[in-house]
Amino acid sequence: MAAIRDEEIEAEARAILREMIEQSGWYRGLSAAERTRRIEEDVDRNWPLMLREARRRLEHRKG
Q1: pTM score
Q2: Mind listing the pLDDT tens digit for each residue in 36-63?
Q3: Quick one: which of 9, 15, 3 has its CA closest to 56?
């Protein structure tokens, strides 16, 4: 199995979380720019929560 770099895992974790938040309906009352800013703040703070899922997905893809 190919090694997965930390940067790849972090990028995948961020993408997973961003997608979840965007689809959730959070911050819908805000302007598009403000909503994007708030989502990015949430992603910056909370992406480590998705590490396990990110690694699993990347391992599956590279499997």
Answers
A1: 0.90
A2: 999 999 999 999 999 999 999 999 998 7
A3: 9
Question: Alpha-carbon distance 40 to 26, whole Å?
Answer: 12
d(CA 40, CA 32): 12
CA distance 31 to 17: 20
The residue type at 14: R
User: What whole-number distance in Å separates Cα of residue 58 and Cα of residue 13?
Assistant: 10
Do 56 and 9 meet the contact criterion of CB atoms below 8 Å apart? Answer: no
Helix orientation angle between 32-46 and 6-24, rounded to the nearest 10 degrees: 140
